[in-house]
Specification:
Elements (H helix, E strand, L loop, with lengths): L1 E4 L7 E5 L17 H5 L8 H12 L3 E4 L21 E2 L2 E2 L8 H23 L6 E8 L2 E2 L2 E2 L4 E4 L7 H9 L6 E3 L12 H5 L7 E7 L6 H15 L3
Parallel strand pairs: 2-3, 2-6, 6-11, 9-10
Antiparallel strand pairs: 1-3, 4-5, 7-8, 9-11
Helix pairs in contact: 2-6, 4-6
Length: about 230
């Protein structure tokens, strides 16, 4: 369950949104989680899908958006990660995930994890000069610690994209930009960029928009276009 925008788009950019949706398939009975909790950051990356859609349109670029909640399965986690199918998220018990056996876990992977990543592979295959950009959002604070960064880039060893984009984002001097804060890009934890970009040697970056900055369509568009201007320098 996923959606693909502009699969044949002319841009060299390909955008991913691993946590685009808070949808829980009907057969999972809401995972025993309240609607209010599903609307929180534990259910999805608030605002990330809207930003991704604007970027796809602006650049005429392919975008692949995951269609299920990160509580069903986190498509940006390694398959052996404890939080691939989380039992607890930010203090909330995910009752529908408690005590899952190997068969149930494998079914989630086959039904929702693999099809999403197969779609990414299908879009990338045969494209020349692909630049992979993974779109996320972060909470304004976590466990009582405020996050000053309005936008942040995560990178690993290859900073060929991250460094010029950071410079461009900081140039106006009117926003606080994070560099591997509050998250870095860790191939032992993250799945999407390592699997689709690092192993191919593709230029890449992961971006986090602070959720209070992208809470509605107007702000999502403003931040997407600000980020687009920074991407355009590379």
């Amino acid at each position: 369950m996923h959606s693909i925008l502009r699969p044949d788009g002319a841009s060299r950019f390909v955008f991913l949104c691993d946590h685009a949706s808070n949808h829980v398939p009907e057969e999972l009975c809401g995972l025993g989680v309240s609607t209010e909790d599903l609307e929180r950051h534990i259910g999805w990356d608030i605002g990330a899908a809207g930003v991704t859609k604007v970027l796809s349109q602006h650049f005429d670029a392919p975008a692949i958006l995951c269609g299920v909640s990160r509580l069903v399965i986190d498509c940006n986690r390694q398959l052996d990660a404890p939080d691939l199918i989380p039992e607890v998220s930010d203090g909330t018990f995910i009752h529908g995930n408690l005590g899952m056996d190997a068969a149930a876990r494998a079914e989630r992977i086959e039904r929702w994890f693999r099809p999403y990543h197969d779609a990414v592979e299908a879009v990338i295959a045969g494209r020349v000069g692909t630049v992979l950009v993974s779109i996320h959002s972060m909470t304004p604070s976590l466990r009582g610690v405020a996050r000053p960064w309005q936008i942040a880039l995560s990178s690993y060893l290859d900073r060929s994209l991250a460094d010029p984009v950071l410079t461009a984002l900081r140039a106006p001097g009117d926003v606080v930009v994070g560099d591997n804060q509050p998250y870095d890009l860790d191939p032992a934890v993250d799945f999407s960029v390592p699997y689709h970009a690092l192993r191919r040697g593709l230029p890449h970056v992961q971006v986090e928009f602070r959720q209070d900055e992208v809470a509605d369509e107007d702000s999502q568009r403003l931040w997407a276009l600000r980020f687009a201007r920074a991407l355009s320098v590379v």
